[in-house]
Amino acid sequence: MSLVVSYIPLVVVGILALGFAPLSWMVSRFVRPKKPTQWMEATYECGSEPIGDAHVQFRFQYYAFAIIFVVFDLVATFLMIWAVAFSGLSTMATVWMLLFLGILILGVAYALKKEENVWI
User: Fold this and answer.
1) Domain ranges of the chain
2) pLDDT > 90 fraction of the chain, expressed in percent and rounded
């Protein structure tokens, strides 16, 4: 019985978390202005009037750099955790981690070299 009682706070927090989005959506429908004006219907870009066509094609390079950044951000996080938690490991573990980092650096160098060819 005590196992079921210990999960009650988790269930309450889960219900609150799942109910927060629909509840805030319903509340916003009641407090927002309902009368549209010409100012509310106008489109804007960063506070100024749009000029020309709003459809712009982004180059793939921006996404590739973003993905490389995310990968290195995650790798840095995992390396910090590994360094703190496993500082007393053997030399072989360090060799494997350095091999892993070398493969990652080769992959990023290949991706950046490939991006350099695309820009031309």
Assistant:
1) 2-41, 60-119
2) 13
